[in-house]
Specification:
This is Cathepsin L1-like. This protein is an alpha+beta fold. It has 3 helices and 9 strands.
């Protein structure tokens, strides 16, 4: 899922900054991409071994934020507000939403710190704490990758 975005950035020679090209949640807008405003250039991407939460943890600790695909189809995800999210009926294979894994924490319950794209009004200021080391819950470690930056 997220690999298509990395491929697009690579093929188009880079990506504008959010300042020069702010997100607009509207359909059928004309593309205003201008390569002179590129904030980053991508040479490709690297994938994390599928299903390995241990490799995912190492990658986010050493490489920084990681793109992950998850199953976000459940109401419990759509209406998440706080706490450590665990959905017993989540799929590890049917992935329908790309999010950004930014870290992890060890507390009473281990969890991943994940940034969603649904605004700061969703979840915990735009973030969700997803259960870690719970058999790849919601597929968080199924399809994970990060860009190779030039």
């Amino acid at each position: 899922m997220e690999k298509l975005a990395f491929q697009y950035v690579h093929e188009n020679g880079g990506l504008d900054s959010e300042e020069s090209y702010p997100y607009q949640a509207k359909d059928n807008l004309h593309c205003f991409y201008n390569a002179s405003y590129n904030a980053i250039m991508v040479d490709g991407y690297a994938s994390i071994p599928s299903g390995s939460e241990e490799d995912l943890m190492e990658a986010v600790a050493t490489m920084g934020p990681i793109s992950v695909a998850i199953d976000a189809s459940h109401d419990s995800f759509q209406f998440y507000q706080s706490g450590v999210y665990y959905e017993e009926n989540c799929s590890t294979e049917w992935l329908n939403h790309a999010v950004l894994l930014v870290g992890y924490s060890y507390s009473d319950q281990d969890y991943w710190i994940v940034k969603n794209s649904w605004s700061e009004n969703w979840g915990n200021n735009g973030y969700i704490h997803m259960a870690k080391d719970r058999n790849n819950n919601c597929g968080i470690a199924t399809d994970a990758s990060f860009p190779v930056i030039l």
